[in-house]
Amino acid sequence: MRLYVPPYHTVLAMVFFALLAFGCGGGAGSPVAPSAPQATPVAPKPNIVLIVADDLDVPTMEQLLKKRQPPTAQPLLDELANQGLSFMGFATQALCSPSRATILTGKYTHNHGVWDNVGPRGGYGAFMRNEADSLAPWLKAAGYRTVLVGKYMNDQRADSRPIPGWAERYVLLSGAGGNRYFDYFMDWNGDIRQFGFDPRLTDEQRQENYSVNVEVKLVVGSIKPKAVDPAPFFIYFSVEAPHRDALYAAKYGGEFRDAGMPDTPSFNRGDDNARFCWTPQSEPLSVGEVNGGHRLQQFRLRSMRAVEDGYQRIITALQDAGRLEDTYIVFVSDNGVHMGQRGLIAQKNNPFEPSINIPFIIRGPGVPVGKTDAMVATIDLAPTILELAGVLIRDGSTGVLPIPEHIDGRSLVPFLKGQTPENWRNDLLIVNYDGDGPNGALGGISLALRSTEWLYSHGSDETKRLYHMRTDQYQMKNLYCEVDKALIAKFEERIATLLQCRGATCRN
């Protein structure tokens, strides 16, 4: 029980009147009651908008920011980068559903159990086991209005049951047929709505049904002034772009005509020493494959233009509602992809940098503008959002909900306050799932350790690679055969430790 201590001036008044009453022989006057305790002001909870792109790699993000063709009249995602804090971000598994499960739970794949996009260990079916223990239920219990817009999980089909934690949901049903952009189904708060399939639609109507445009309207409509809805909101906005086939709205068809796959030293090349050190020699892309890759990259860049315009509309809606100054905006991708690097096109599910390194930007009240080279990951998003919402308290004091001790990631809130946490991590576990083993057992798992200095990977096919990331950022020289095997043993030991970690044991 908390002991109430009256304010100092109240104590003086009580003593004065007590003495007066005593001196007058204890007359019949009523005693003076102490003033009521003053409630400690509670800081209003911030709004949080989490925007998740699909397969947006860092080189493509850099093309959007630096190589716009033709230049646009106003900055778009440039504004986000110039107003927020950019991190060196990583996906702990470079595949859609496992990565999204990590974003929503704060757990490594081996702890949430979503290993694939489909099947018994993949997609929505596997994630259903985690739904009650994820961001939306936590935030809803803390008083947030929770809104889900766009892609949730792969292989998600029509289902009228409520999705735990979401007050409103407008979910693209990727397992219901059609494509992600013009012909698709949506779960509209339990109603199934169909977009784009009607052949009687005019070209203008078809463009209006472009999925990103429909979703942006839903996000904007969910942003309400405090006078209309005082509750803080959490909006999870997950776009389809720039996932293959990256269909784009017609208005952007003239842009990025001279663009193509990123021109990096690793373009259309494997390891320089691949034939001599545990890795097979990759076959170079043909001229036709290169041309097709360049065309796909143009489509990807154009598909992101609707996301950029949507971001600006969201900023405007927040300003008009008077809520921009108390809103955090988080922009990430579920994973990256290779676009020409190592001779791979639209490939992920591997430990190489184009697949695991992702855009990771946060802007909001008090967030310093700039970049940090701190190693952060998708496991850190949930604990960060929970702390911003007052649910997760780093010092262990009681929050709105008990601290989820089983979360594997760490909160980034200190960085958002201009501080560097002590003992921040210097490595991460990266996993990739290559299929079931014998008799349906979990198997075919490739493991990697990405540290601030090294990337070591041990494939399920026994390929082994080691790259020194400070001198070989494009991962072109495999050093596995050249280093002391005691170093390799340390990497293997660390991977084994992280593969068994849970909660606090994953964070150091």
Question: Which secondary structure elements does this structure contain, and how are they paired or packed?
Answer:
Blueprint: H1 8-23, E1 47-53, H2 58-66, H3 77-83, E2 85-90, H4 96-105, H5 109-112, H6 123-127, H7 135-141, E3 145-151, E4 168-172, E5 184-188, E6 191-195, H8 203-208, H9 211-222, E7 233-238, H10 287-320, E8 327-333, E9 338-339, E10 345-347, H11 353-356, E11 357-358, E12 360-363, E13 370-377, H12 381-388, H13 413-416, E14 427-433, E15 445-451, E16 454-458, E17 464-468, H14 485-499
Parallel strand pairs: 1-7, 1-8, 2-13, 3-4, 3-7
Antiparallel strand pairs: 2-11, 2-12, 4-5, 5-6, 8-12, 9-10, 14-15, 15-16, 16-17
Helix pairs in contact: 9-10
Summed up:
28% of the residues lie in helices and 18% in strands. It has 508 residues and is α/β, with parallel strands linked by helices.
What does this structure look like?
With 508 residues, this protein is an alpha/beta fold. The chain contains 14 helices and 17 strands. The strands form three sheets. Strands 1, 2, 3, 4, 5, 6, 7, 8, 11, 12 and 13 form an eleven-stranded mixed sheet that branches. Strands 14-15-16-17 form a four-stranded antiparallel sheet, with helices on one face. A hairpin with a 2-residue loop joins strand 5 (184-188) and strand 6. The longest helix has 34 residues, at 287-320.
What does the radius of gyration come to?
A: 27 Å
Largest sheet report:
11 strands, mixed
Give the oligomer, counting copies of the same chain as homo and different chains as hetero: single chain
Strand content: 15-25%
Return residue spans where pLDDT drops below 50 for at least 5 consecutive residues: 1-41, 395-401
N- and C-termini, Cα separation: 36 Å
